[in-house]
Amino acid sequence: MRETADQTSLLSEAGRAFVSTPLSMLIDGEWTASETGRTITVTDPATGLAITTVPKGSAADVDRAVASARRAFEGPWAATRPVERERLLLRLADMLEARGDEFAELETLDNGKILMMARYGDLSLAVDSLRYMAGWATKIEGTTISPSFAYVPDMRFTSYTLREPVGVIGQIIPWNFPLVMAIWKIAPALAAGCTVVLKPAEDTPLSALRLGQLICEAGFPDGVVNIVTGDAEPGQALVDHPDVDKIAFTGSTEVGKIIQQRAAGTMKRLSLELGGKSPVVILKDADVGMAVQGAAQAIFFNHGQVCTAGSRLFVERPIYDAVVDGLAQVADGFRLGSGFDPEAQMGPLVSPAQRARVQGFLDRGLAEGGRLVAGGGEVDGPGNFLRPAVFADVSPDMTIYREEIFGPVLAATPFDDVDTVTALANDSSYGLGASVWTGDMRLANHFVRKLKAGNVWVNAHNLLDPAVPFGGYRMSGYGRELGHAARDLYTESKSVTMAL
């Protein structure tokens, strides 16, 4: 039985000061409670102990936030030159980078992820993304067109397009990468000239609120960014609100479907980055050691709580046993513990509900005839710990093969030829990520073209860069974040024709 200790004592002085009192949400440049006075307790997933409280936002709070964002959009933010938006975002990036250790601690305390990963993975990507998106503020351009209007032959015309900000954006982010997801949503919207109402996940609001403090300190006008905390109510209110011009959502496919249905009433713009059941294909010519480490990273990174997690593993039969045995050794060798423990390799899942959900998939996998070769099962003691699991010889009719688990559970299946595995890899309603491991670039290119996924890696998995677009096919959503594509998410195209 592990002892339970309050991990806030492990934080830096700045981190302890931040969580030492109840927190407020940000509306119109002011830190405020919910109009209802209700709060939510934020808990540490490694201990189950309370950290602090945040407001439980309501539809009335969303009304205030949206009104604030609208005033800012039509007022001071509209008057801000593109180069000034760029400078503000770059200043925010510098401030975030300078407080990287503090933010990493908050992510580990709030989410449970390993501290080193939070510091050198999440924080680095967040800062890089801010700086990359800042550059787009001065590079939003249209095109010039020479039209041919045959029915007015005696006149000449010119046409051009403008890209204009969409307006007030409602942004709803998940709990698996709280800070990175906040930056991926906020930065391109502000670069394009939009204003934002951000709804962080109920389980992990801390880094978004601390980011809100930096946004105020950086000098953004009041109302440009508003942050409303709470459960599903403020998220639903954002989707329904008639004065919200667009919803940008990252989360489950089930919730994405609901958002799509509810948004029909106001015809607001949508971008949805949803779930996944990503295949990892290992061909017989692949280096077994490299393939084992790559497949392990694909599924066990961030405790499997990744939308592109490589949860379906297909291995060509000649090396299937060696790869599965290697992965079983990796899974059984993980040291579980608090993200603050320098020897821990995997932390807790984010909440008791998430651990119970993943355990339910493990139980179903066994009940449906899955062969568990490593790990699996909850860990006695405080915290939401669960041993990483490897199932072998999984068939396509099993639940663990078909449904997104969002936890450290791998389903492995052998295959005998390329055509068979291509069909198996694409046999999913999802299409977010996929990877292939081989030394044969001819085969690699074959898979790149055949795999139905928005993100395909060769001899790698889960690599992300601010310049590379990210998004999915099919039930994994639509719209692309990052890269040049992010500009299109937050701008509208206007065509103008003038008689000369």
SSE layout and pairings?
Elements: H1 13-19, E1 25-27, E2 30-32, E3 39-43, E4 50-55, H2 59-74, H3 82-98, H4 100-111, H5 115-136, E5 144-145, E6 157-165, E7 168-172, H6 178-192, E8 195-199, H7 206-218, E9 225-227, H8 232-240, E10 246-250, H9 253-263, E11 269-273, E12 279-282, H10 288-300, E13 312-316, H11 320-333, H12 352-367, E14 371-374, E15 389-392, H13 399-402, E16 409-415, H14 418-426, E17 433-437, H15 441-450, E18 455-458, E19 477-478, H16 485-489, E20 491-499
Parallel strand pairs: 7-8, 7-10, 8-9, 10-11, 12-13, 12-17, 13-16, 15-16, 17-18
Antiparallel strand pairs: 1-2, 3-4, 5-6, 6-20, 11-19, 14-15
| Contiguous runs where pLDDT drops below 50 for at least 5 residues | none
Instruction: Write the CATH architecture name of the largest domain.
Output: 3-Layer(aba) Sandwich
CATH topology of the largest domain: Aldehyde Dehydrogenase, Chain A, domain 1
Overall mean pLDDT stands at 96
Major sheet details: 7 strands, mixed
Instruction: Say which CATH homologous superfamily of the largest domain is assigned.
Output: Aldehyde Dehydrogenase, Chain A, domain 1
Keywords: Oxidoreductase
Domain Aldehyde dehydrogenase: 31-496
Protein name: Aldehyde dehydrogenase
InterPro entries: Ald_DH/histidinol_DH, Ald_DH_C, Ald_DH_CS_CYS, Ald_DH_CS_GLU, Ald_DH_N, Aldehyde_DH_dom
